[in-house]
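Mods, move this if it's the wrong board.
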Amino acid sequence: YPQGMVDFFKNSCPAGYTWQRSLLFEDGAVCTASADITVSVEENCFYHESKFHGVNFPADGPVMKKMTTNWEPCCEKIIPVPRQGILKGDVAMYLLLKDGGRYRCQFDTVYKAKTDPKKMPEWHFIQHKLTREDRSDAKS
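Not the wrong board. Structure tokens:
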């Protein structure tokens, strides 16, 4: 975060924060994802435990046919909800396809600190560039 802007994520440490995300794909596929992030000051590291579940991907769609190549860069709108102590994230993401097309996915995220946030940031944007790395040891 730029200097002078409240960093919700750093302010939530060392207790950490969680996030819950729904991913709605243009062809009806749906995923849910969640994460639990904590910081160990003693070990000088953070821990990220996540869960991911996807359903309804069409057999002839780009995910099941492995036609996606990477994520297109995007900008997430972050909306603070101070009464609930959460941030809401809203972003339209696009997976790039081998044929040059795009596959739309709507991400809706709720970020929540494990302790009451010291301060909440203002409404803002976060630029993302997710890079997919294909690994030879990954399960099919």
